[in-house]
């Protein structure tokens, strides 16, 4: 929300509620820390990829990148998610590449499609972990979001921040976009900056597209091919302008940019009138919900997280050490 990016009259109007939010969240965290509220310790290591602000910071590309990095090193990894945006009411549930995103949530299905890793959803993370471990032998559990889910103990915490919006006006919900204050970053193992310029101690991530994939036929084209004509863009993610700016950065002439709510449910009636014969470019997260009624001029643009070699080594080494220690204990 734009009002969260600056201090305005609404900020001061809502500030008392932000103070109340802070008091409740601090009390809740303290109760978990002192074991007054019960928390769950997974039998395998847990890494949380989360954020301290709401809306579109880039967690899912980080999760996909991390899963792929672990798989390349022979580490068996599973992913858990709340399944936000899905209509399913029966938990826990396993998610596969063939699952219906309308039921299971777009992000879990996207992760399953991109990585082929075991994925489970439930608002209760303990249930998801139990389900995964009942069917798969895993070395590591990655939780997509859940930094503030203190009912689940974790071994490593990563926080992803938007390099452009950073912390907005600096206020907690509802006066600002923050779930926790920036001081929370001092206690996490890694802070990942999505785009722009990383501050000292942060790891810079860029999201790089290489091609566009046709929803109806599966045809792949280099993204540069779309610079030869005008196109329309669609994004139903936490921060749609990031997708539009990325396309424009690659020289694509966008005649219209259509923003939808995060986890938007789509239909042919919603999307078909938007393109008017021009190529329609959308995010991969949108595409997982549109294949069933896709038209020949609809394309999606997958992005992949990229880190420097130094950042990659710094991020992965603590995880590799953790998993090695876990496996050594398991065999003794």
Automatic annotation (TrEMBL):
Similarity section: Belongs to the LpxK family.
Keyword Nucleotidyltransferase found: no
The entry's keywords: ATP-binding, Kinase, Lipid A biosynthesis, Lipid biosynthesis, Lipid metabolism, Nucleotide-binding, Transferase
Alphabetical list of InterPro entries matching this protein: LpxK (IPR003758), P-loop_NTPase (IPR027417)
An example Gene Ontology biological process: lipopolysaccharide core region biosynthetic process
Physiological role: Transfers the gamma-phosphate of ATP to the 4'-position of a tetraacyldisaccharide 1-phosphate intermediate (termed DS-1-P) to form tetraacyldisaccharide 1,4'-bis-phosphate (lipid IVA).
Taxonomic superkingdom: Bacteria
Binding site residues for ATP: 53-60
GO CC, any one term: plasma membrane
EC number per UniProt: 2.7.1.130
Species for this entry: Frederiksenia canicola
GO molecular function terms attached to this record: ATP binding; lipid-A 4'-kinase activity
Pfam families xrefs: LpxK (PF02606)
Reactions this protein catalyses: a lipid A disaccharide + ATP = a lipid IVA + ADP + H(+)
EC main group: transferase
Pathway in which the depicted protein is active: Glycolipid biosynthesis; lipid IV(A) biosynthesis; lipid IV(A) from (3R)-3-hydroxytetradecanoyl-[acyl-carrier-protein] and UDP-N-acetyl-alpha-D-glucosamine: step 6/6
Protein's UniProt name: Tetraacyldisaccharide 4'-kinase
């Amino acid at each position: 929300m734009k009002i969260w990016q600056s201090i305005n009259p609404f900020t001061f109007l809502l500030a008392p509620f932000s103070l109340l939010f802070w008091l409740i969240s601090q009390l809740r965290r303290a109760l978990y820390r002192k074991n007054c509220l019960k928390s769950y310790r997974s039998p395998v290591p847990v890494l949380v990829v989360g954020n301290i602000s709401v809306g579109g910071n880039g967690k899912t590309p980080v999760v996909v990148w991390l899963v792929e990095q672990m798989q390349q090193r022979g580490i068996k990894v599973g992913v858990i998610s709340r399944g936000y945006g899905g209509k399913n009411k029966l938990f826990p549930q396993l998610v596969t590449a063939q699952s219906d995103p309308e039921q299971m949530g777009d992000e879990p299905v996207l992760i399953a499609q991109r990585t082929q890793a075991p994925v489970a959803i439930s608002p209760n993370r303990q249930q998801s972990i139990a389900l995964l471990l009942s069917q798969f032998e895993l070395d590591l559990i990655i939780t997509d979001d859940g930094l503030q889910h203190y009912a689940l103990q974790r071994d490593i915490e990563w926080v992803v921040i938007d390099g452009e919006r950073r912390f907005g006006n600096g206020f907690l919900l509802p006066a600002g976009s923050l779930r926790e204050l920036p001081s929370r970053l001092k206690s996490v193992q890694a802070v990942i900056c999505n785009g722009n310029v990383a501050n000292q101690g942060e790891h810079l991530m860029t999201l790089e597209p290489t091609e566009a994939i046709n929803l109806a036929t599966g045809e792949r084209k280099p993204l540069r091919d779309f610079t030869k004509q005008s196109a329309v863009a669609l994004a139903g993610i936490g921060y749609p302008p990031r997708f539009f700016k990325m396309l424009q950065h690659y020289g694509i002439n966008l005649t219209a940019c259509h923003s939808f709510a995060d986890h938007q449910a789509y239909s042919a009636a919603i999307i078909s009138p938007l393109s008017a014969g021009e190529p329609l470019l959308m995010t991969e997260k949108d595409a997982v919900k549109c294949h069933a009624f896709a038209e020949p001029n609809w394309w999606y643009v997958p992005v992949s997280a990229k880190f420097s070699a130094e950042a990659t080594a710094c991020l992965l080494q603590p995880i590799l050490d953790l998993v090695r220690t876990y496996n050594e204990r398991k065999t003794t």
